[in-house]
Amino acid sequence: MALMITDECINCDVCEPECPNDAISPGEEVYVIDPNLCTECVGHFDEPQCQQVCPVDCIPLDPARPETQQQLLEKYRIITAA
């Protein structure tokens, strides 16, 4: 699944530079994750880096966008042209 940022986000700016796919950007009120670019760091890291650095734990899986590990890996390959 792609990840999402909830409204508990405090706009601390630590997640954005950690995303290897540049999927995180400032939104109108809180940071947002582009689900077309989010691979949960599959292909880059063992765990989502944004979740690792978030001080308020506001980056859960997006239940509206279920994806398998294989689908995430395929998205990674498309994004990186690997």
UniProtKB/TrEMBL annotation:
<dbReference type="GO" id="GO:0051539">
    <property type="term" value="F:4 iron, 4 sulfur cluster binding"/>
</dbReference>
<keyword id="KW-0411">Iron-sulfur</keyword>
<keyword id="KW-0249">Electron transport</keyword>
<dbReference type="InterPro" id="IPR050157">
    <property type="entry name" value="PSI_iron-sulfur_center"/>
</dbReference>
<dbReference type="InterPro" id="IPR047927">
    <property type="entry name" value="YfhL-like"/>
</dbReference>
<keyword id="KW-0479">Metal-binding</keyword>
<dbReference type="InterPro" id="IPR017900">
    <property type="entry name" value="4Fe4S_Fe_S_CS"/>
</dbReference>
<keyword id="KW-0004">4Fe-4S</keyword>
<feature type="domain" description="4Fe-4S ferredoxin-type">
    <location>
        <begin position="31"/>
        <end position="64"/>
    </location>
</feature>
<keyword id="KW-0813">Transport</keyword>
<dbReference type="GO" id="GO:0005737">
    <property type="term" value="C:cytoplasm"/>
</dbReference>
<protein>
    <submittedName>
        <fullName>4Fe-4S binding protein</fullName>
    </submittedName>
</protein>
<dbReference type="Pfam" id="PF12838">
    <property type="entry name" value="Fer4_7"/>
</dbReference>
<feature type="domain" description="4Fe-4S ferredoxin-type">
    <location>
        <begin position="1"/>
        <end position="29"/>
    </location>
</feature>
<dbReference type="InterPro" id="IPR017896">
    <property type="entry name" value="4Fe4S_Fe-S-bd"/>
</dbReference>
<keyword id="KW-0408">Iron</keyword>
<dbReference type="GO" id="GO:0046872">
    <property type="term" value="F:metal ion binding"/>
</dbReference>
<keyword id="KW-0677">Repeat</keyword>
